[in-house]
Design a protein that fits this description.
The chain is mostly beta strands and 71 residues long. It is built from no helices and five strands. The chain has a three-stranded antiparallel β-sheet with strand order 1-2-3, with no helix packed on it. Strand 2 and strand 3 form a beta hairpin. The N and C termini lie far apart (30 Å). The model has no long low-confidence stretch (mean pLDDT 89).
């Protein structure tokens, strides 16, 4: 949830099947309107990364992510 508490961001743990394995989508939900906005932001995984374990928004389109690798 963003700092203004108007948007919820949902991120898949890994890239969708058939998608770029190094890009993970972040979907945006409008909490006020009660619907998905249709906006998709893309998180680029580190070359050694395979998935994202945690995502937190800082607002203004900025996020902090904890990546995982296969070890």
């Amino acid at each position: 949830i963003d700092p203004a508490r108007t948007r919820l961001y949902a991120m898949l743990e890994a890239a969708p099947v058939g998608g770029d394995p190094k890009r993970v989508p972040i979907l945006e939900y409008d909490l006020v309107a009660g619907r998905w906005t249709g906006a998709v932001h893309w998180y680029p995984l580190d070359p050694a990364g395979t998935a994202v374990g945690e995502l937190t928004t800082l607002g203004a389109g900025r996020f902090v992510a904890i990546e995982r690798d296969s070890t």
